[in-house]
Design goal:
The structure is a homodimer of 331-residue chains.
Chain A lengths: L11 H5 L3 H7 L13 H24 L5 E6 L4 E9 L4 E15 L1 H7 L1 H6 L8 E14 L7 E10 L5 E6 L4 H9 L5 H12 L1 E2 L4 E2 L5 E3 L7 H26 L6 H20 L2 H8 L4 H4 L6 E3 L11 H10 L6
Antiparallel strand pairs in A: 1-2, 2-3, 3-4, 4-5, 5-6, 6-9, 7-8
Helix pairs in contact in A: 3-8, 4-10, 6-8
Chain lengths: 331, 331
């Protein structure tokens, strides 16, 4: 029997089948590089699978009817994932929560796309395929009500020959206090640094606008202790439900006009522009031939582009746009 | 008085102001490289301005009420254009017809994006800014009725240090016969070559699908006589109205279901994916800091992404998708 990557959340019995021996024997070229249950890598993987389960359960409960549809997929080059999507619910127009654990070798262009700084600065970029291991949970939650915020979060663990064990986190909407509390538990410098990093990363250069507001972002934290980073990512993952769901409960039935809806749709268009043109995860996925429905599940159900739309100065829409152009200090 | 590029369709009197002397004196770095009325470049420019006028007039007449809104813009680096957009009409949800005449120096990355083959094959790529002159008319017409086809056309004249006077044409929907007739007048090899070129160019690699059907595409026809190419581009430009408007008249009131509309919106989503990820004109525009509203006016008013949507086998939607995956010979 050919060894299959653990696409379902691992149970003790399936774990026992993943001995190093079998792995080395069966997947010589794209070997799963680790099966030690206590390693950071294994514990990160367990954490993201737990996060997927708890976020999906909370979303279904808050939506009050719609259910996630699950797809389990494997990647020919090595690994696979679980995509869960809830579409056209009562509260969310599209909610995706995906886990993927993939490994193999990445083409040099994809390496460059995923590691622009590393490739340019370290000068150690080789035009050869690069072995990698990546595990992550990624979620985009697009509510129907234009006053209810879209949330994006993504926790990743990524290793390649040039970098070991960096952890990446992106949170992009309205979770200031909870984020700051999570950050402050670990390092008082985290929140201000990661808030600015988020404003810089989610920048739509051709618009001179950020895609969204209120997030934190970090990447390549190789100088920190791995145990601490795992705890930090776990803390952040566990705070999603508590931070986001109460806002949705407050906003999901707020009355809105056609104009409010059109504005939401225009901002959805910006989301599409950022993801297709700049987002490293998306461009990496497109270039490595990942599963396209999982990569693009982040796109909203619907989006809108009006020619030369400008919100009226002083309006709520104008204030939001202003904050996307000139980042604010929220706390 | 500083010399200004001719943003309005040139009249004899404004033309007289554009002597070579003034140009050389006033725009040393980004000089308008030509002001000879009889040159291919000048006649191409006149042709595209005439095409913009005639297409806009025909669209307004067929829409029966909505009017184009015109914006005249200039590009800091050199040149400018006229954007005309009709939005939320009776027949078209968004119709854009733009002329631009721009020149200056392009960053090396933009040169590579616009000339991937040239940069890779000729081996003469220099990591220095490259002077260029580009004139074109570009149009995207998105009707409301899902049975009425979207039309894209783009006629461009482009010169840089590496290439002189190539003419580019893209036509992408449902104009088989008229296109073939236009091609056959000039060279019997044109239609089959340019039809295949179109199927190859409008390819969404991450989907293994073409963006649309029924077009022709050509580029870099440097080996042909310039006069002939100008006549050919003019013939094609003049055939747009006769080829497209009758189809719209036939289809604009075809009854449709919510499902038909959702399918149209999903194809609009593919249009967005192609333009933001692959289209050379769009990526060139984003990288050279062009006027963003003119570059992205091609995006539809609304678009849709459903997770893992698959049309029912044998349905009309399925047949269209099949033709986007496996190009057909229409004539």
């Amino acid at each position: 029997m050919k060894w299959q990557p653990p696409l379902q959340p691992p149970s003790p019995s399936t774990h026992q089948n993943h001995s190093n021996h079998m792995i080395e024997k069966e997947t010589a070229e794209t070997h799963r590089p680790d099966s030690d249950h206590d390693s950071i890598r294994s514990r990160f993987e367990k954490m993201i699978r737990d996060a997927q389960d708890s976020v999906c359960a909370a979303i279904e409960a808050a939506d009050g009817g719609a259910k996630f549809k699950e797809d389990v997929w494997s990647r020919p080059g090595g690994g696979g994932g679980i995509s869960r999507v809830l579409q056209d619910g009562a509260v969310w127009e599209k909610a995706g929560v995906n886990v993927s654990v993939v490994y193999g070798v990445m083409p040099p262009e994809a390496f460059r796309a995923a590691n622009p700084v590393n490739a340019a600065e370290n000068g150690n970029f080789k035009p050869e395929p690069v072995p990698f291991f990546a595990a992550g949970v990624s979620s985009v939650l697009h509510p129907k009500n234009p006053f209810a915020p879209t949330l994006h979060f993504n926790y990743r663990y990524f290793e390649n020959d040039a970098r070991k064990g960096n952890v990446k986190l992106m949170l992009t909407f309205f979770l200031f206090k909870v984020q700051k509390n999570a950050c402050d538990k670990f390092d008082p410098s985290f929140y201000p640094r990661f808030k600015k990093w988020c404003d810089d990363y989610f920048y739509i250069k051709h618009r001179n606008e950020r895609r969204g507001l209120g997030g934190i972002f970090f990447d390549d934290l190789n100088d920190y202790d791995q145990e601490m980073l795992l705890s930090f990512a776990t803390e952040c993952a566990n705070s999603v439900v508590d931070a986001y769901i109460p806002i949705i409960e407050r906003r999901k039935d707020t009355p809105f006009t056609e104009q409010n809806k059109a504005w939401q749709q225009l901002r959805r268009g910006r989301y599409v522009e950022f993801n297709l043109v700049y987002d490293r995860g998306t461009t990496f996925g497109l270039k490595t031939g990942g599963r396209i429905e999982s990569i693009l599940v982040s796109l909203p159900l619907t989006a809108r582009w009006e020619y030369d739309h400008k919100p009226e100065e002083g309006s709520e829409e104008w204030k939001l746009l202003d904050a996307c152009i000139n980042p604010k200090e929220w706390i």
